[in-house]
Amino acid sequence: MRQILFAAGIALAVSIMLTPVLVKAFSRQGFGQEIRVEGPASHQSKRGTPTMGGVAILAGLWAGYWGSHLIGIGYNADGPSASGLLVLGLTTALGGVGFLDDFIKIRKQRNLGLNKTAKLVGQLVAAVAFGILALQFRGADGLTPGSAHLSYVRDIATVSLGSVVFVAFCYLLVSAWSNAVNLTDGLDGLAAGSMSLVLGAYVIITFWQYHNACGRIIVQGCYDVRDPLDLALICASAAGACIGFLWWNAAPAKIFMGDTGSLALGGLLAGLSITTRTELLMVVIGALFVAEAASVVIQVAVFRSSRRRVFRMAPFHHHFELAGWAETTVIIRFWLLAAIASAVGLALFYSEYLAAVGG
Question: Is the pTM of this model over 0.90?
Answer without folding.
Answer: yes
